[in-house]
Amino acid sequence: MDRLVLASASPARLQTLQSAGVAVSVVVSGVDESGVDAPDTATLVAELARLKAEAVLPLVQDGDVALLGCDSLLDLDGTPQGKPASRQEASEAWRRMRGRSGTLLTGHHLIVRRGSLTERVTRTASTTVFFADLDDDEIDAYVGTGEPDHVAGAFTIDGLGGPFVTRVEGDPHTVVGLSLPLLRAMLRLVGVRWYDLWEARV
Fold it and tell me: How many CB atoms sit inside 10 A of residue 167's CB?
C-alpha cells in the first residue's frame, strides 16, 4: 500500500494530508448530499463519508489502494450546520454561534483494496469549538470575504476565521476536515502502516 485516494474536493483536507507527508491524489465523488437524511449529525457525517468513498471506488481501477471519504458538519443545539447557502445564511449562523460553542463532527469512511480483498472502516471524530463573541461589524466583515461560503459551519481555523475561534477541545485536524490520528488508527485496523503512505520514505 503506497498511496491514498481522497474522495473529496476539499483543499483543506488535501493540504492536511500533504503536510503530513502522505502520497495522495483526489477523485471527487460528485455525490448529491441534499437528499441524505439521518437521525443525528454524527450518523449523517458518517453516511455522507461512506457515500463519497463508495462512489469513487469503481473509478479507481488500478492496483492496491486506500480510499478515504470524509464529511464535516457543525452541530449546534443538535442541528447540523453545513455550508451556508447564502451570505445572509452565513451571517445568521454567526449570530447564533458567537460567544458559544459547537461540536464539529467529521465522518471518515476508509476502503482498503488489496488484490481481491476489500476492507472497510467507518469512524467519526468530534471536536468542541469555542467561538469568540463577535460584534455585528466583525461578522459582516468576515462574511463579506466569502470564506464562510465554502466551509461547514461557516468558519475556518486555518484561514481568515482563525482569530474568531478562541479554543478547541479535541483534535484540531478534525475542524480542518479530517482527523490524522483517527485515520492512522483506522489504517492500522486493516493492516496498513501510516508511514507506508508517506510521499518520501525516510
Answer: 11
Residues 83, 74 contacting (CB under 8 angstroms):
no
Of 176, 192, 170, nearest to 16 (Cα)? 176
Which pTM does this prediction carry? 0.93
- At residue 31 the predicted structure's pLDDT band, cuts being 50, 70 and 90, is confident
- Give the residue extent of every domain in the chain: 4-197
Q: Supply the angle between the helices 136-144 and 87-97 in degrees, to the nearest 10.
A: 140
On the question of pLDDT at 202 being above 50, the answer is no
Q: Pairing between strand 101-114 and 65-76?
A: antiparallel
The reported pLDDT for the residue numbered 105 is 96
- Kindly list the catalytic residues: 71
Q: How confident is the model at residue 197 (pLDDT cuts 50, 70, 90)?
A: very high
pLDDT of 19 over the 50 cut: yes
Amino acid at 137: D
* Residue written as grid cell 508511514: 195
Task: Detail the DSSP E strand segments found in 33-171.
Answer: 65-76, 79-81, 101-114, 117-131, 165-169
For residue 61, give the C-alpha cell. Answer: 481501477
Calculate what percentage of the chain has a pLDDT beyond 70: 98
Out of 3.30.300.30, 3.90.950.10, 3.40.50.261, 3.40.50.80, which CATH number does the structure's domain 4-197 have? 3.90.950.10
